[in-house]
Amino acid sequence: MSGAPERAAGDHAGDQAGDHPAGAADYARLEDVVQDPLFPEVDLALRRGAHVDVTDPERYALLRDAQRHLEPFYLRYGCQLVQADGFVYLLPSGDRLGRRHLSAGEMLVGQALALLLLDPATLRTQGVVPRTLVVARLAQLVGEERLVLALNPRKRRHDRRVAEQTARRELDRALRSLAALGFVTLVDEERLLLRRPLLRFTEPVRGAGDPVAALERLAREGKLTLDVDAPGAPDRPTLDGDDADAQAPPEAEDARGPPGAGEAQDPDDDDDWGDGEAGS
Question: What predicted TM-score, i.e. pTM, was given to this entire model?
Answer without folding.
Answer: 0.72
